[in-house]
Design brief:
- There is one protein chain.
- This protein is mostly beta strands and 434 residues long.
- The protein contains 4 helices and 29 strands.
- It has a 5-stranded antiparallel beta sheet, with no helix packed on it. Strands 18, 19, 20, 22 and 23 form a 5-stranded antiparallel beta sheet that branches.
Length: 434
Amino acid sequence: IDAGLNKAFEEMSGPRRVAGHTPAVLLLTDGNPEGAYADSVRQAAQQIRDAGIQLYTIGLGSDANAALLREIATAPDHFYQSPTPTDLAAIYTRLASELRQVPAANVNLADTVSSQFDIVPNSFSGAATPQVNGQSLAWFLPRLENGVTEVSFRVKPKACGTFGVNDSAAASYDDNRGARRTLTFPVPTVAVTGCSTDLTDVFIRDNPQDDGRIPSSIPWWESPDIWVRHANDGGTQHENPQAGQRNTIYARVTNRGTTTVTDIDVNIYFGNPSLGLDWPSGWTALAPVPRIASLAPGQSTIVAIPWDVPNLVGHWCLLVRLAAPQDPIGLNNAPWDNNVAQRNLHNIAFPQPQAGACQLDDNGLQTDRITFGVANTLNTSSPVDLEITLSSQAAHAEVHFEPGPLAGRWSSLDGLVQEPDGRLLVTRFPARIY
């Protein structure tokens, strides 16, 4: 018995010991040592207890030395008497319950949201992210520790009334005895109020097809209600901003509702997408826009502010946020909040080329050339797909792609046709090279 306890101590204090697990030794014996004195057994047990290791003893057989086994156990109630082997199953089940500190493991959580609500995309938080299939959500958590474990998401009601938020919500899990259990959650009921035939809603479009309904469609980053002019000339045709110069940003605000909206604040921001566009850290606020005192139903108005464009050529983004006491901002998410819109654009170098030279914003029949490189920073070869998109294009314009050293290395083309000179003519956007 003492040799067995010493070996167990070596395991509990050696490299095979798993940090974070509950250290415990289970001694199954008749309690009658052979070839050793009882004091040797007591000494081996004391070493285990002094190391903070739980020592459980199980006396097997009617003649087991219960007194010695109860004495060497960590506590008197850590001794179990098992007259026959058939009693062991119940004892081991109880020990599993005591030793496992995890209330639940292999947790599958399933939630079916009522059809009266929309699930708000990217609103998930907590211990795990669900798999989403229509109105159904499914989470998996390998284990639950003691305390509170939460997962959360947001829903948006489709109409007024009193509804159950879920059609069903349940969890299945292994309890601390290893048995599979099922838990059914109650369905909360909410009352959605404040609906009327009147609609109070100012909005700014995410794309030319956007009518203000949520969510808007892709692309939501090409708002036609946000544009730039090189001068404060009132023009409505977008011009690529000139780096290092004062340009003017225009924004169109529309009241799509049936009530007059007052005190509308229009806030405009710019951001560098290469640095991330997380709200609000990824955006820089521009000069305040004069508050719109009142906007009648069906009416639109245009606001403008000067923009001292950073002296950097490249890709930038503009963000416009509308807020009014009657129509506050709900989410900082353009497709899911029609008070928010974004326009991606390209800063061009200043001064502009002479008339007739290549330039990005020339209205004449000129050729603009944009050169880019494709680099593989991995240490292995990798297949790469290229996609070419364009937010707007004059009716007379053509876009050609000169593949250079990539010529002929594609597996297929989509929206491009190879010309005799080796260039690829873009026939539709987005065009893709696979």
